[in-house]
Amino acid sequence: MAMIEVNNIVKEYMLIRKETGLRGSIKSLFAPKKECVRGVDGISFTIDKGEIVGYIGPNGAGKSTTIKMLTGILHPTSGSIQICGISPQENRKAVVQKLGVVFGQRTQLYWDLRLGESFELLRRIYQIDERTYQENMALLNVVLKLSDFIDTPVRQLSLGQRMRGDLAAAMLHSPSVLFLDEPTIGLDADAKHAIRQFIMEMNRTKALTVILTTHDLDDVEQLCSRLIIVNHGKIVEDGPKDELIHKLTPKRQLIVELQHHVEDLTHPYAELIKQDGLKIWYQFNKKSITAAELISDLSRKLPIQDLSVREPDIEDAIREVYKTNTPLKIPSLV
Ligand SMILES: Nc1ncnc2c1ncn2[C@@H]1O[C@H](COP(=O)(O)OP(=O)(O)OP(=O)(O)O)[C@@H](O)[C@H]1O
C-alpha cells in the first residue's frame, strides 16, 4: 500500500542577484535582477507502508526542500503529493495528524517546560485521546527510557536526552509516517545506537513508514533498505540499498602484505592502486575475476604474508554517484 506518492514535483526559488559596487547596489534597488533556482527539479517516487527509505544527497541537493513540501510547509511550484491519500497542500491539518517529524538541529519541545509537560501540551495540540496517549507514553517510556529525565526542564536535557524526547513527541499521536532529518547529528555512539534501535522497533511493531535524510552513512547502513539519492534537485538513483551498492561499485579491493620486496607486482585483471612499503592495494572488477582466482594467481608469484578483501560499502557507492553527477541546470534569468 502506497503511503507516500510524489508526482513530478518542482520547487523554484526566486533570488535577487545583487550587483557589486555602489552603482550596482543602486541599480539592483530599482531594477533587481531576479534569478530562478530550482531547489527540486521534477522528483517522483512512491513509498509503501513499512519502508525505511534513506533520502540522501550532498549539501544543496534538494532534500530539505522535498521534506518541507511533503510536510506541507512549502508548496511545490508544480506537481502533486499524496500522504496516506491526502494532499499536504490541500489539507495540511489532516496530513499533520498522519505525520511525525524530527529535525536533529531543532526541537519541537518547549524549552521552559519539563519534558513531561511538553508531552502534555502536545497531547492537547494534537487532540490525542487519553487512552492512546497513555498507551503510547507507556511504550515510548520503555523503548526510549524517558522516566530518567521526564521531570527535567527541556533546556537542561543533554542532546541525547533531548533527541529521545523529540522522537517520543513525534510519535505521541501514532503517526503512520515519520520524517527524520539528521536524527543522530552530534550524538555519541550510545545515543546513536538508542535512536536507531527505537526507529527499528517502531518500524517492526507499528509498520511505521520512515523517510530519513542524513549525512551519517552508518544511519543509512543500519536502518535503510532502500535509498533515493538526489543531486541538483533530481533523483539520480532509487532502489534497494544492496543492489545500488553492487551496481554503483562493482570493484573490490585486495590488500596484500608481502614478506619481502618483489619487482613485478602486476596482474592483468587487477589494478595496483596504492603501495605502502610491503603493503599493496589492488582493485579488481568482480565481473572480470573472482577474489579466489586473483588470490590464487598472486600467491603463485608473490611471497604473501597476509591478505584481506575489502567489499565496497555505502560510502564508496555514494562517492561514485556524486563523482558522476555534474551540475545539470543552469539558472535562468527572469
Ligand atoms: N529559501 C530559499 N531561497 C532560495 N533558495 C533556496 C532556499 N532554500 C533552499 N534553496 C536552494 O535550493 C537548493 C536545495 O536546497 P536544500 O536546502 O533543499 O538542500 P539539502 O539537500 O537539504 O541540503 P543540506 O544537505 O545542505 O541541508 C539549494 O541550491 C539551495 O540554495
From TrEMBL:
Transmembrane segments: none
SUPFAM superfamilies found in the cross-reference section: P-loop containing nucleoside triphosphate hydrolases
Superkingdom to which the source organism belongs: Bacteria
Sorted UniProt keywords: ATP-binding, Nucleotide-binding, Transport
UniProt cross-references to PROSITE patterns, sorted A to Z: ABC_TRANSPORTER_2
ABC transporter domain location: 4-257
Database matches in Pfam families: ABC_tran
Protein name listed in UniProt: Sugar ABC transporter ATP-binding protein
Organism: Paenibacillus swuensis
Lineage of source species: Bacteria, Bacillati, Bacillota, Bacilli, Bacillales
